[in-house]
Design a protein that fits this description.
The chain is an alpha/beta fold and 492 residues long. The protein starts with 5 loop residues before the first strand and ends with a helix.
């Protein structure tokens, strides 16, 4: 087993990363917020409690921007865990985080954007603190900075909810210096190593002992429709996510690449629960210049694989690019439903011809996805949202559709009669029978006497007939061809 695939749990045992990668569905969970200045290990501790790498971690400060929320079991108790962006002392526009005024060169090199982003991150962190049932204040061994001091002053109104932990004390390193933090008025302090697992179980037990679990209930409602919002940077993904959830879920900014981690939220539409996942903007690989963005893009792609329906955001003013084609290819491969969302439609002249032309351009570029619906939208104004969600429900119903095997094979005989399998250089073949292997994604297994002789063109023909005749008109259909010498009649 690779070392980087193992975490020590809050109880001390080693477990595999994937072991806890499941949806935990509860209501009224206590909210636990991990907070502190940049680069003290908040995301590492967050991942430690989750038993998997959910938040992006990097030696550079300021990697986490949006608060990331997940359900987690801590000492066997379910909680809602939040990883927040780092608190910076000076986050006003026009000044560096060190407090020094920005030079003219710095202003043109992107540091003004950085200062603006810091301000947005701090605002989101303060918002999370106000809602928290418990706050883990993470400090770093051997250092007490002005940012720590100001942040502790900010926490005074919530002091009864604060649990202090000094990180990076693995093996007792710098513990003698860390004791100095007690002078700040903490009743108790924990010396931990989020990376190595030292004393995490003690912190976890103390945390759980402060929380009220009396209102927690298992959520036995419908399985939510999982929506992944993807696209190039600055197409309005976070604006749409915030609109759907009715929360300031993600930071919205004109700065490209604002969203880094996958940000999650929930909402209900027509009595059906939805779970929306706002992802980082996916750029061309040649333009991904740093590790942080590389991991952001990878997680966006992974989110597509776990989604039911993908909202592919397109800036209606900019139109399509080859990058859009590469993004959506990932959704096709895994059989997710796709809706092309033409955002910022309000900025274009109100003309039906414009929409028809935009749809035509999409169908030309995505020829194999002619089935995928196109919806125009203004995420900023909230126009077109109901149509978008109605369309998502339509796709989800098709993704969940299952065809009885006998009806499926009767349809197969009609398709074969309408267009008999052609002979090719691999010889003649007979299609014996077909079964639906799974839903969401919709996949069929076609059994043939010579699977190697079944051409891609004939599989495409059957795919189109399945989509047209059996109610899968708006979603991808996957077909796998296998060998068999037995007929369906022999198997009944």
């Amino acid at each position: 087993m690779k070392k980087d695939m193992v975490f020590e749990s809050a109880g001390g045992e080693d477990i595999q990363e994937e072991a806890f990668n499941e949806d935990l569905r509860y209501k009224n969970l206590p909210l636990v917020v991990i907070a502190g200045r940049p680069n003290v290990g908040k995301s590492t501790l967050f991942n430690r409690f989750l038993h998997r790498r959910r938040a992006i971690t990097d030696p550079r400060p300021g990697v986490t921007r949006d608060p990331i929320e997940e359900n987690a079991f801590i000492c066997g108790k379910p909680v809602r865990l939040v990883d927040t962006g780092g608190f910076k002392l000076d986050h006003g526009a026009g000044r560096h985080s060190s407090g020094k005024p920005l030079s003219r060169g710095a202003r043109t090199s992107g540091l003004v954007d950085e200062a603006e982003m810091d301000s947005l991150v701090v605002s989101k962190t303060r918002e999370s603190l106000g809602k928290a049932d418990a706050i883990i204040l993470l400090l770093e061994a051997g250092e007490f900075t002005a940012e720590d001091e100001e942040f502790i002053a900010l926490l005074r109104p919530y002091w009864d909810r604060v649990i202090a932990a000094v990180n990076k004390t693995e093996g007792g390193r710098r513990e003698a210096e860390a004791w100095n933090f007690l002078s700040l008025g903490f009743k108790r302090i924990f010396f931990i190593s989020a990376e190595h697992g030292d004393n995490i179980s003690d912190l976890a037990e103390a945390l759980v002992s402060t929380l009220d679990f009396s209102r927690v209930e298992e959520d036995s409602g419908d399985e939510p429709v999982k929506i992944a919002i993807v696209g190039k940077p600055n197409t309005g993904k976070s604006t749409l996510a915030n609109l759907l959830t009715g929360r300031e879920l993600s930071i919205v900014s004109d700065i490209a690449g604002t969203t880094r981690d996958v940000v999650e939220g929930c909402f209900v539409f027509k009595d059906k629960p939805f779970r929306v996942l706002d992802t980082a903007g996916i750029r061309r690989r040649s333009r991904v210049s740093e590790n942080i963005e590389y991991y952001s893009v990878n997680r966006a792609i992974k989110t597509i694989k776990n989604a039911d329906v993908v909202f592919h955001m397109i800036d209606a003013q900019e139109g399509l690019s080859d990058q859009d084609k590469k993004i959506i290819a990932h959704a096709c491969e895994v059989g997710a439903g796709v809706i092309f969302v033409l955002n910022k439609w309000d900025a274009l002249p109100a003309d039906k011809k414009n929409f028809k032309e935009a749809v035509r351009n999409i169908k030309v570029m995505f020829g194999v996805m002619e089935y995928a619906p196109v919806v125009s939208l203004s995420a900023l104004k909230g126009e077109g949202v109901e149509t978008l969600l109605e369309t998502a429900l339509s796709l989800y119903r098709q993704l969940s559709r299952r065809i009885e095997t006998s009806a499926l094979n009767m349809a197969l005989q009609d398709w074969l009669a309408a267009f008999p399998p052609p002979q090719n250089r691999n010889g003649r073949f007979k299609l014996r029978y077909i079964v639906q292997a799974q839903t969401n994604p919709v996949k069929f297994i076609l059994f043939a006497s010579k699977p190697e002789a079944v051409s891609a063109q004939y599989v495409s023909y059957l795919t189109n007939r399945i989509r047209k005749d059996l109610g899968f008109s708006r979603i991808p259909v996957l077909i796998e061809v296998r060998g068999s010498r037995r007929k369906w009649e022999d198997l009944k």
